[in-house]
Design goal:
alpha/beta; disordered N terminus; single chain; five-stranded parallel β-sheet
């Protein structure tokens, strides 16, 4: 991927902006230190020219940030001009250090030139950071103003004079003078928390930003040359909100403010001011807006509760910590965790706390804040993981006999959710990646075919929901809008459950947000309200008819559009907050954007009662509250850094002459078949690729690869995934999660730093060097053995089994072309041990029954790790490819399989036996009546 360093002063390679900026400062620092060292040798002018060139590279970029600011940059230029090489070296070293450490946010001395306290026109005016008072959070506010550049220092000082000693936070102004510069600052400066727009600013930037203009034209259908400066404020606000929806936006205008404030098109603006009004009101509103996001209702109340002297007479001895701190035997527990943990524990829901089951106070407010943050109508906290979140949704929206189209490779909680609710799964298959023993994602064509088959069979009315994993464990991201758009064209009231356990962070990336369930729901709502939506549907109806013929061959390959008058937006998204944000383990949410939620509100409450603990962990709840605060205030910047870390890992491995001989990170060309990459995107490292190339893939491709998820092939180094994972953990203290037969999965997140990258690369080099040495020492025999090992891991891989079918005894209509089945009935049939049998996997009886019958019918879920999905489910007819796959498995962990006894099967005589809750009579009767 092209970086800023390779394009001169181009500012619009924005997704690597943070790292590129720090790299440039490090480069300037190195050059100034070299200049200072050469000063004694009489090479002042040569060194000065190099430093001046490096400073020019920085100057345009620094206009978008508050620090170092005009004063320090001016002082630096003056010192360079006076050939003060030593002074320049000291000054740059201090400034780059302040940027790296962030000390400029709380140390006012970092804003002063190195050798003089003031030049008579101080850029920062008192009060600064409180002069020894409590820490005040720092942020930056973007002011988009038509004020001439020469007058902006004065404007900035006027803004700083608004500060008060009792302000809870402090911000520095960043002033820009055009729409394009405002968008650049929004994209590149993660410290910006609020934007103040003066109506009438000019549009074009003074900088060279072709990629930004391409982005606006392709992503937002906006030609900046056509914008009218007098009416630019609302348009700019809308664009900024699309990039960073968490930002507070204020508009200052001399137009009819009363009319503008009541215009729905301006709803994204927090407040509209008449331009001549007192600036203090703007200042106070900026502080109030950020304070609202900073507030954590539950955590704040929990801190107050912990500080109170409370006597506890309830069933939680650990509360207040006295049983631990006074203990002779477990005092080390208190010393390890600290007393606050126990002071903040309680089983009470009064005294400033709240109830998770029936929240009416601070938990309710905390959930409402989280809903605002992720673009949902409702959010529900879950303290026992997304497994529970998924089961809550099934329990709330599905009834016995409902059909759910589901990815067979989805997390086991979905399968169990269908067992609990009585929903019948209609499994659809993801595309296989046999070479790496993993599956990708489910093609839209497959989902549409399943829906059209149901329509042809007259059972589309029983289809309640489509559930898909987005992104998949290995990083495959659906085109969520396209999936929902086309499915709603076939069934306009369909529900969608997007399991985004690994993708919660994507909300804070303008790059990935459109591919989230909630992001796509917002886009569909916006599209539905446009006249163009109805016109497009009417054109489609004229060609295909208003009610599709399910056997029309054109439907599978045609981009179908829903009737905007009938479609309902019904999206449920489950996020493992603990997997991608700063929450404690098992912290999860259910986010709801369902226009018909009121139909399920009572059932959802019952689902919460069924699955939520009556003793939820207070610290997990608090961490969910805090995770939301962090992501609303710095999530954009943190996610951008996670991208940078991922790209650094990919680049370091690919470009290293030794490591790349044995390891590689798979690109989209290896992870996503070409038929699903219409854009032609291959990899983030493809020569000549820019972020516009990647954005084209996000916009057009059926599947996109999440850059933060990296499949590292280790089979070419002679390691299977499990062994390599164990080696990294035991010898090198590097942990990772998923493995396959010949790969491991690396995931960059908001916790990673470049130091982590350095450690990983060092370890991979050490392992690669060891392999080189062993092959050199072992001679031809060692090389032959190594090649054979690699061939076994990379080529002799087992075929991946697909779902076969449910046994006819667990299907209401065995003759149907659709394959849904009564998994619940089979699941509970296995509770009767007398109705089950065990057959050893390697027994000849297995082969005989595969050949001649009776059919092998699974009694339970069988889930090998890896790959981590059920290769057998209750009621499934076990086919030869599944048996072959299991026999070739060399993994130690297989849930649901007893190696000593063999496969657990339902006896042929017991198949379909009626049990309570199985194949409900109401559904069967409805089906019989329909056929009659």
């Amino acid at each position: 991927m092209t970086t800023e360093g390779s394009t001169g002063t181009r500012l619009d390679h924005f997704f690597s902006a943070s790292a590129a900026r720090l790299d440039r400062w490090r480069d300037l620092n190195a050059k100034t230190q070299a200049w200072a060292a050469e000063a004694h040798g009489g090479k002042l002018r040569e060194g000065r020219a190099v430093v001046e060139a490096a400073l020019r590279e920085l100057s345009a970029l620094e206009e978008l940030f508050a620090y170092p600011g005009q004063r320090l940059m001016k002082s630096l230029a003056e010192r360079i001009g006076s050939d003060d090489a030593l002074g320049v070296g000291r000054m740059v070293r201090r400034m780059s250090g302040a940027l790296l450490s962030g000390s400029y946010r709380y140390d006012s001395g970092e804003w002063e030139p190195a050798d003089d306290a003031t030049d008579g026109t101080p850029e920062r005016l008192s009060p600064v950071f409180g002069g020894g008072s409590a820490h005040r959070p720092y942020f930056e506010t973007l002011f988009v103003t038509p004020t001439p550049a020469a007058s902006r220092v004065k404007v900035a000082n006027d803004i700083r004079r608004l500060r008060r000693t009792d302000d809870a936070m402090i911000y520095e102004p960043v002033l820009v003078g055009s729409v394009e510069d405002a968008l650049l600052a929004t994209i590149m400066n993660g410290k910006i928390e609020a934007v103040v727009i003066f109506d009438g600013v000019p549009v074009p930037s003074q900088h060279d930003v072709p990629l930004l203009r391409d982005l606006l034209a392709t992503q937002h259908h906006l030609d900046t040359a056509s914008l009218v400066p007098r009416e630019i404020g609302v348009t700019l606000a809308r664009l900024i909100k699309r990039i960073r929806p968490e930002l507070d936006i204020y508009l200052l205008t001399d137009r009819n403010v009363e009319k503008l404030a009541g215009d729905p098109a301006a709803s994204m603006i927090r407040r509209v001011f008449y331009e001549v009004e007192e600036l203090m009101e703007v200042h106070l509103n900026v502080l109030e807006g950020v304070a609202d996001r900073f507030a954590t209702p539950f955590f704040d109340n929990l801190k107050r509760y912990a500080a109170r002297p409370i006597a506890t007479f309830h069933a939680l001895p650990i509360a207040r910590g006295k049983s631990i701190m006074k203990s002779n035997w477990i005092r080390d527990m208190g010393e390890f965790y600290g007393q606050n943990l126990f002071l903040a524990e309680s089983s009470a829901t009064t005294g400033g706390l709240d109830s998770m089951l029936e929240p009416t106070g601070n938990i309710k407010v905390a959930q409402e804040k989280f809903a605002r943050a992720v673009g949902a109508d409702h959010v529900f906290f879950v303290t026992n993981g997304t497994s529970t979140s998924n089961k809550m949704v099934y329990q709330a929206v599905c009834a016995p006999g409902d059909i759910v189209i589901a990815d067979r490779n989805c997390h086991k909680s979905h399968h169990y959710g269908m067992v609990l609710s009585g929903a019948q799964p209609l499994y659809v298959e993801a595309f296989p990646m046999t070479a790496y023993s993993m599956y990708g994602a489910v093609p839209l064509r497959t989902i549409k075919q399943a829906m059209l088959n149901l329509k042809a069979e007259g059972r589309l009315d029983r289809l309640k929901m489509v559930t898909l994993t987005n992104c998949t464990f290995d990083g495959h991201v659906y085109n969520t809008r396209r999936v929902m758009e086309e499915c709603l064209a076939i069934k306009p009231d369909l529900l969608f459950l997007w399991d985004e356990a690994w993708f919660g962070f994507a909300r804070w990336s303008p790059f990935l947000r459109p591919r989230t369930g909630l992001g796509a729901a917002a886009a569909l709502e916006e599209w539905r309200a446009t006249p163009a939506a109805l016109a497009a549907w009417q054109a489609q109806a004229a060609e295909l008819g208003e009610d599709f013929d399910p056997k029309d061959p054109r439907l599978l390959d045609r981009h179908l559009l829903p009737d905007p008058r009938k479609m309902r937006i019904r999206v449920y998204e489950t996020d493992s907050v603990h997997k991608s944000m700063s929450a404690l383990r098992q912290g999860s949410i259910v986010a709801v954007r369902d226009e018909d939620y009121n139909h399920h509100a009572s059932a959802f409450r019952e689902a919460v009662f069924i699955h939520a603990s009556t003793s939820p962990n207070q610290q997990i709840i608090a961490s969910l509250d805090l995770a939301r605060r962090q992501m609303e205030l710095e999530g954009y910047e943190l996610v951008m850094r996670a991208f940078e870390i991922a790209l650094a890992i990919r680049r370091s491995i690919a470009e290293h002459p030794i490591i790349s001989k044995y390891f590689r990170v798979l690109g989209a060309d290896a992870m996503v078949p070409a038929e699903y990459r219409a854009s032609g995107f291959k990899d983030f490292l493809t020569p000549g690729a820019t972020w516009m190339t990647a954005l084209k893939s996000v916009r057009e491709d059926e599947f996109f690869l999440d850059p933060t998820r990296m499949t590292l092939v280790c089979g070419t180094a002679g390691y299977d995934g499990t062994a390599f994972k164990g080696l990294l953990a035991s010898k090198y203290n590097i942990q990772m999660n998923k493995t396959s037969r010949n790969s491991v999965l690396l995931q960059s997140n908001i916790n990673n730093t470049r130091s982590d990258v350095a450690l990983l690369i060092k370890v991979l080099l050490e392992i690669s060097t060891d392999i080189e040495a062993q092959l050199a020492e072992g001679g031809e025999n060692a090389r032959a053995a190594f090649a054979a090992r690699v061939k076994n891991l990379m080529e002799d891989v087992p075929d991946l089994p697909n779902f076969s079918r449910f046994h006819d005894g667990y299907r209401e209509d065995p003759a149907s072309i659709t394959l849904e089945g009564d998994m619940r009935g089979a699941f509970f049939a296995a509770y009767e041990e007398d109705d089950c049998e065990y057959v050893p996997l390697m027994s000849p009886q297995i082969d005989e029954r595969l050949k001649s019958g009776p059919e092998l019918v699974s009694a339970n879920f069988v889930i090998p790790y890896p790959p981590g999905f059920p290769i057998m489910v209750p009621g499934q007819v076990i086919a030869a490819d599944t048996i072959g796959f299991m026999r070739k498995l060399d993994v130690k962990e297989i849930h649901g399989y007893n190696n000593a006894r063999g496969l657990k099967l339902i006896k042929p005589a017991a198949i379909g036996k009626a049990r309570a809750g199985s194949r409900p009579a109401a559904a069967a009767g409805k089906e019989a009546a329909r056929k009659k």
